Amino acid sequence: AAAAVEPLPYGGDAMAEALVGLGGGASNANVAKIAIEQRKKKQDVVEPQVISEELLIEGVEEPVRPDGEPWEPIDFPGVTSLRLSFQNIIEVSNLNNFDQLLTLRLDNNIIDKIANLGHLQQLTWLDLSFNNIREIEGLEDLHNLLDLSLYHNQIEEIKGRLDGCPNLNILSLGHNNIKDLKQIDYLREFTNLRCVCLDGNKVCQHDSYNQHVLAYLPTLKYLDYMLIDRKAITQAQEGYNLEELTEVREREQAEQAKQKSKKEKQAVLEKLKTSFLDCTEDLFEEMFSKQVEPENVLVLQCYQGLKEDYRDKLTEEIKGLRTRMEEKNEVRLKKVAGFERSVYAAEKDSEEEAFQAVRDFKSLKKKVLSQIDREEGMKSEVDEMIKQLMDQLAGLENHLMANEIQLQESIEEALSDFEAKISDLVKGMSDNGADFFRRLEELEKGFFTGVTDGANTEIEHFAQTQESAMADTDANKARFLGNREEMNQALANFTEAHTSLIQNKDDYMQNQMISWNKSFFEKHRERQYHRNRQRILDVRKVIDECRAEIQAASEEGNEYDENDGGDIYGR
Length: 571
Fold this sequence. Notes:
The chain is 60% helix and 4% strand. The chain starts with 11 loop residues before the first helix and ends in a 15-residue tail after the last helix. The longest helix has 86 residues, at 379-464. Residues 1-32, 34-43 and 558-571 have low confidence and may be disordered. It has a nine-stranded mixed sheet. The chain has helices spanning 12-21, 25-43, 53-59, 182-185, 209-216, 230-239, 242-273, 283-287, 303-374, 379-464, 466-472, 475-481, 484-556; strands at 60-62, 81-83, 103-105, 125-127, 147-149, 170-172, 195-197, 222-223, 226-227.
């Protein structure tokens, strides 16, 4: 075995001098030279700097210019990879407009705070290793991040700090100040995590470190960059901290069930919303929630029966409303789809007619200008040919403009007709909704009357038999039945809350329908306005280009350009 070598008891310069003194030829001399240079480099004072334009130009890695030269100026939206390593950068800044950045390397700097990265939402790889960062922050909007390196910083806490990066595959936190095994448990939430590095943290000194990681993070494939044996994961799952792990799994299952239920509920609401019916979902539960239902009524013997009767009648009313509304809504959706198809078809036909007219004229123009170019006719004959071509161009312009005006007028007429028809349909749905809420108001009146009558009867009975009743009743019953005024006020507040809720639901449904009707036709008219403006600009551009080409051929006798372009008007 090789003999142990005692470390030299002096610094870099002394070590270099000692190596020179030992001899050993050029090799030892080179080692000594390198050691001295490294020592001097460490002693050099490098000024902290911010991310400047010069650093950005030098740092662009992708895309690469064909000539291999730096991008100057930088095409910010096109940059996908940026490397700013070993630059003594003191803060993260000046990264605006790099909206398509996928890879960002800021390692080996003196950054002490993660900031100004929220707009880089396409980022998949972020390297902040070898800095002075103490806290994980500023990553809330980096939802696409897959690879995060914070190796060799001063981080102590990871729990709750990576919630904005749910898709992490690789997480490097080696050589930080993480101490508690419980910090590792937080990473269990990241189901896509395949590689974790915690090497060099105090947490690794725990005897149970490996087992704890494998038990709590069973989807890992690499730990501290070492491939994990699947048998070791199985052993940890079956033999480490079983009671706590079981509780963790049960909580996770409960949370998953809760999220699934929430998602299903949201899907139901979205479906109902298309028929303006989402306000009817859980209506009974809202009306009889703890915030609405007074404690006073719960002591009444008549109350539960009246409440169940209310539930049954309301359920039937909602069922009937949904059937009627969904039938009408199906008709509405079909009419809307048919209308939009007709509009798009009319636009397409009009545009195809315009394209063909432009192509026909360009074909004629090509023949005429080619003929002028080939033949040396009389100037008067050439002028006549040019004049006729110009007349044809003017006719084309008039035709295209007339075509667009006709289309616009036809669509506006169709919009007005459809608006009248759909308004009648929406009014029918609105009337159905209003009828439902009026019946609900009648149902509420009957419920209030029943509860009020029952309460008065029970209060009178309680007053007549108070002494014997006190012996076998609870304190709340005695309190509420012994105070008629308080009971009546509670009932008045209860029915007032119901009435207000019913009115709010009615208003919400009516406003939904009005809003949809208004926004639908406003959206279509705005679309037609912008389409028409663009069409006019396109027509003028085509006409101006053709006119300029004809004039150039006439005045200068230039060779006719036979390029037969390919824009939307056949140029």
